[in-house]
Design goal:
434 Repressor (Amino-terminal Domain); single chain; 95 residues; elongated; 60% helix
Length: 95
């Protein structure tokens, strides 16, 4: 795992798509067919990207939903790796 936290898909959407286009969050939410609150929570990294939202963003940006979901998976795995469980043991051969 990388030491640097991966970029959240909401941050990427905001910085690489919404801001360069000069679109407001309100307009972007309308274009995506979601509420302003839903989009705001995503771009402010308060919510994770859902598969449904990945499909919407993919359609709006002509990119693959898989690429957006991959970003979320990397963030989720990075977050999980920061809290490694201490009670896990390696599997051993029985007998």
């Amino acid at each position: 795992m990388t030491k640097r936290k991966p970029s959240h898909p909401g941050e990427v959407l905001l910085e690489d798509v919404i801001k360069p286009l000069g679109v407001t969050i309100t307009q972007a939410a309308k274009d995506l067919g979601v509420t302003r609150k839903t989009l705001s929570e995503l771009v402010n990294q308060k919510a994770s990207l859902s598969p449904e939202m990945a499909v919407r963003i993919g359609a709006a940006t002509k990119t693959s939903p898989e690429s957006w979901m991959s970003m979320q998976m990397k963030v989720d795995l990075w977050n999980a790796s920061q809290k490694k469980p201490t009670n896990v043991q390696r599997f051993r051969k029985a007998g």
